[in-house]
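Second attempt. The first submission of 3'(2'),5'-bisphosphate nucleotidase CysQ had a stray character pasted in from the spreadsheet, which I only caught after the job came back as garbage. Lesson logged: always re-copy from the clean sequence file. Corrected sequence (272 aa) follows.
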Amino acid sequence: MSETLQTTHVAASDADLLHQTAIAVRAAGSALRERFGEVVRYQTREELMRALAANDDTALDILRPRLTRLRPDAGWVEDELDGGALPPGEWWVVDPAEGNVNHLHALPEWAVTATLVRENQPVLTVVHLPLTGETYTALTGAGAHLDGRPLHVSQTADLALSIVATSQARPDEDEKVVRRVGSSITAMLFDALVVRTAVPATLHLTNVAAGRIDAFWQFAGARADLLPGALLVTEAGGRISDAEGRPWTPQSESFLAAAPGVHAEAVATLSR
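This time the job returned cleanly.
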């Protein structure tokens, strides 16, 4: 009896935490929306990096104190480009401006994300798109939702009828990874109906969770890129693995999220 009550209490606590996290993420999104709209061309990479950092700082000034108050003992991942496993305990994995370069170029594909990771497993996540007002949420065991409406992955069972997506390698990525990205896109162009290529990864994964596209893959990548979407897709009924079909962890060198009906075909295509 006590074990059941404890589980219920923890679930209720996490559900309230998800709600409070969404409030914080939306507030950060509002601040970034106020900075959006003017295209500025930067003359040097240093200028561009300073502008990216200014966006990050604007959102972090809101997110960090609010999320810290919600979970004072949780660690904080400083760099959204980090990868690999986290130390034991709870950690906030936050991307304050996912798709930051799009924001600076007045493109609409950007978001604010916050994910709570407990013992290296994502527990809850919030992905907010300030320009549309959409908020995607997922809580382990409680499903994935868009503004409160349940999400479900596609029922497509044929890769030849599928829309699939990937994002490009990061700047200064290892040449082998860049070439692997290119060859995987070529392979998918032969096997899938449509191939979409753009950044950021998280927005492709929200589309997989919502059933709009059927698969997303990426080589390398960071925790903040993949953990929010991994939880959304899993809770929406999708399958997560590496590109070879093995269980995915933040240490994996590749990532695949797909509707169950096309997962095996996608693995076969990416393994060629």
